[in-house]
Each structure stands twice: as C-alpha cells, then as structure tokens.
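Cross-posting from the modeling subforum.

Setting up a comparison between two proteins and wanted a second pair of eyes on the formatting. Protein 1 (sequence, then structure tokens):
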Amino acid sequence: MLVHGVGSNRAAWDPVFPHLDKRRTYLRPDLRGHGESARLTGPYTLRGMAADVIALADHCDLERFAIVGFSLGGLIAQRIALDHPDRLNALCLLSTVAGRSADERERVLQRRDILQREGPLTHLANAVERWFTEEFIAKNPEIIARRREQARANDPECYMAAYNVLAESDLGDQLDQIKTPTLVMTGENDIGSNTRMARLMHDRIRGSELVVLDKLKHSILLEAPQTVANHLNKFLAPHLPDHS
C-alpha cells in the first residue's frame, strides 16, 4: 500500500513505480479529498484517514500488507501500525514527521496559518524550493511546472483539512509501541521532515532501519525515484510473501 502526502495524489508514485519489484501487487489510493477521491468536507482526523486505508484493504481482501507512507502518508502509516499491528508485514516511513520540538511545532502551525490567510494553493505552488534541490529545479523546469499545476488542482478546503492533520498530529511519544519491521527514510536537507526526527523514529522503533539520502530535500519520490525504490525493494523483500 503506497500512501501519498498532502496536496498530492496517487500519481506521486509514478516515478518510483517502474523500479519496484514487479513480483508484488501495489495499491496506490487517493487520500480523501485528493485526486479522484470524493471531496469530503473537513475536519479530517488522522485516525479517520487511517481507517480509510484499512477499509480499502478490507475491500480488497488484504488481511496483511506492507505500507509505505510519504509525508502525511507516513503519519497515516504510523497510526495504522499502532492501531492495527496485526495487519502489517512491514512499515516504511518516508519523509515524515514525529517528535517535533516546540520550535518545530510553532513553525508548522505558523505555516498552516499562512496557508489559511493567503490561500493554500498559490502558496503551495510557490514553495518548490522547500521540496527540491537547486540543481533539480534548474535542470527540470517542466517537472517543476507540472508539480505547480498539480498543486493548483487541489480543492482548497480539502487541502487545508488534510494539512491540519499533518500540522496537528504527532505520534512521537507512542513510537516505542511499534513492533512492525520498519524502514525510516528522509532527505538530508528536508526542512519539515528533518533528519533529527528521522533518527528519533529510528531510535524509538526498535530494530528499525534508517536511510538518509544525501543532499535531497522533501521530494525524494520525484528527485530520486530509483534510489528510493532500491531501498524499498531491499527492505521489503524478507518481510513479504514470495510471489515469484
């Protein structure tokens, strides 16, 4: 199960998907209010968004599965690992958050307030420097333009409902309860999902693995899809049934 981040949709996994182990079956849902899912009015809750994923697994008769969550998707994945540990074979937390410091909590809430005041889609579309390295922006203007257009296509109310979940949720003090085999991955220069939080997740989830991708910021799925897929393939192989 591949779960995207806020303001995105299942197409976020398109660059990564060609490099994933084809012996597996992958589900890429659109989160509520995103992509082709219903534009449900808020407020959203983390537990409610996790329940959406479990409902999809039930609909597909998936008793157990691995979950790979990016950003908000990683928070959803943490919630599922805590509430439904019997459903997971493996947990992969990509560019996500846990254990924010007081300053980090203040900054994300301030950013939430700016989004509400200035309009989330315009601000989101102009924030690419937070997502990509300068080199990637310079070499890939068409990808940057496409990402901006994808940002503008979001429903603003649904975006803010989902962003509130991202800004207000933190499961850092519960992570030591997670027993599922876990991979934590983030970019070295990710501002919001920083390496301190990644190491905190790694330290609190016993037996987890940690990968920090050199120089990268937040958008590791677009900027380094093959590297991300290689790490996922290697980590997931011993934890999933062999379908070869």
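Protein 2 (same layout):
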Amino acid sequence: MLEIRHLSYQVSDESGEELGILNDVSLTIGEHKFVVITGPNGGGKTTLAKAIMGLVTPTGGQILWNGEDITSLNITQRAQKGISYSFQQPPRFKGLRVRDLLELASGREGLTHDEECQYLTRVGLCAADYIDREVDTSLSGGEVKRIEIATILARNSGLMIFDEPEAGIDLWSFARLTDTFRQLHDEQKATLIVISHQERIIDLADEIVMVDHGVITQHGAKDEIFPKILANTVSGCSYMHGA
C-alpha cells in the first residue's frame, strides 16, 4: 500500500517568491489497485509521481510504501524496494542494446529468447527486429517509450508508475499498451499508477485522482469520477485527448 501524507513541494522563482507545486497532498492507494492520475497540464501530476519515485525531494510530508517510510530514500533505494518509473520522455543509451536493458531490469543475465519476446510483444515490438538494436537516436520516441515500458515489465515491480505512456506512440501500439495494463491489473501482481489524459486508459482504472494547482481536487472510484470527466468533455472543458 502507498500512503502519501501532507506532501508538499515548493520552489523559488527568480524573485525569490515561493511557488507551491504540490500543496499538502494526502493520498492512499491500496495494494494491487490501478489508479489513473489526471488533470490539467501543469497541475502537478508528474511532480507527484516523481516525488513517489524519489526524482524530486519534497519540502514537507511523508511517503510510505507497505508501511515503511521511504521519504528519505533515494531513487536507487526505492527501486530496490520494488518501485519503478516510466518517464514521459525516456532517456536514450548509446552503446546499450535492448537486450542489455532488459537483462539489467530483470536482474538476470542471459534471458531466454521467449522471455525477451514476451516483454517486447506486450508493448507491440517484435523481438527479432529490436533485441540487438542500440537504444540511441536511430529509434523513434515511440519506440524508446515502448522499450522502457518493457523494462518496467521485466523488473516485475510491486509499484509501477507510468507517466503518459501513450505519448508518441501509434494507435496500434496504444491498443497493445491498454491490453498490457489490463493484463497487469487482472494478474493482481502490482499496484499501477498511470498519469494519463486518455479516456481508454482512464476507463481501465479502479480509482481516479484528479490533480490541479498542486492539490487533489477529486479522488474516488472510477464509476464515481469518470462520468464527471465525460460531462466536462461534453461541455467543452476537457483536457482529455482521444487516441
């Protein structure tokens, strides 16, 4: 279970004025839940996700994972606790092959071809075409995104965080990703947090968290929150995008 208690993150602008990116955020996510965090751009969604992963250091509050206070742990220590993060714009690694990244993520050398194929197929990539390619500028942004998600699957983490996984991928691959998230949820092996504006991803969630101006404006079961999002879409106030 993930518990966020009164989390704040403030930065100073050029004039020295304090800006609240996250403002006293409290949130509890139960074991094996699929939670989508959504809301207007710039509202604090990604900062919240990065704070959970340890990519930004909160200026106040606590983060607990399975009852353990991980607020002071760095990203490596949190990864060792079973937390994974998929960036909206993944890094590239010249000199490292897709095979290397999957082995590093899984913690095992010499993955079988079937294992490699399984991870890549779940994100819409053919292992034969990609397994020996370097993760460099020869790959498109969508390809790099799918490879990173495959490494998250290979890690088999207890908490998987995905920041707008649909960004930069084609419609066919998007359909494969939604199938992947559905399967992960059905397997009940991990807690999933997905930042997304996509209706088809939001519709998979157990719970929806809406974040705006650094605060949680709504949090509840999908059946409670999703109709309100759709109503906003009809009224022209939506920040959602179709795929």
